[in-house]
């Protein structure tokens, strides 16, 4: 009898990093930023739009459940707290789910970003030399 349970499909989506005035590439949002509400809203909207467009280009299908994890390679060995990446992670997950408001950007891959439809694994920091990179792994589980 053939196996009808397909293995989960994993997609890797780059999350664009926005350069600062000095040209350094940093995650768009961190928990330590103290931005004016309008500047913060602008960055959140940028993350949502860029992640939604990148995920759409990757061809991720609509489903009932996703497992998502944010990865960050800063390009050096300095100490960093992975919890600081949660604001970026939240905006990215919002981009994959249906937004509660119609004017919000959301790709609608899953009906909502609640635990019933999306498992959010803790962000991971990959220390060491190399190019700076921020990306999501998205696993279609059902």
Automatic annotation (TrEMBL):
SUPFAM superfamilies: Holliday junction resolvase RusA. One of its GO terms (biological process) is DNA repair. One of its GO terms (molecular function) is magnesium ion binding. InterPro entries: RusA-like_sf. It comes from the Bacteria. This is Uncharacterized protein. It comes from Kibdelosporangium phytohabitans.
């Amino acid at each position: 009898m053939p196996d009808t349970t397909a293995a989960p499909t994993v997609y890797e989506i780059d999350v664009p990093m926005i350069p600062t005035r000095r040209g350094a590439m940093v995650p768009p949002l961190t928990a330590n930023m103290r931005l004016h509400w309008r500047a913060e809203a602008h960055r959140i909207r940028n993350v949502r739009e860029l992640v939604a467009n990148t995920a759409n280009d990757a061809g991720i299908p609509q489903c009932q459940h996703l497992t998502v994890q944010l990865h960050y390679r800063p390009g050096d060995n300095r100490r960093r707290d992975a919890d600081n990446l949660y604001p970026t992670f939240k905006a990215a997950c919002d981009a994959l789910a249906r937004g509660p408001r119609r004017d919000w950007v959301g790709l609608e891959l899953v009906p909502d970003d609640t635990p019933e439809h999306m498992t959010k694994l803790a962000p991971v920091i990959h220390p060491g030399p190399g190019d700076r990179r921020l990306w999501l792994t998205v696993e279609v589980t059902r």
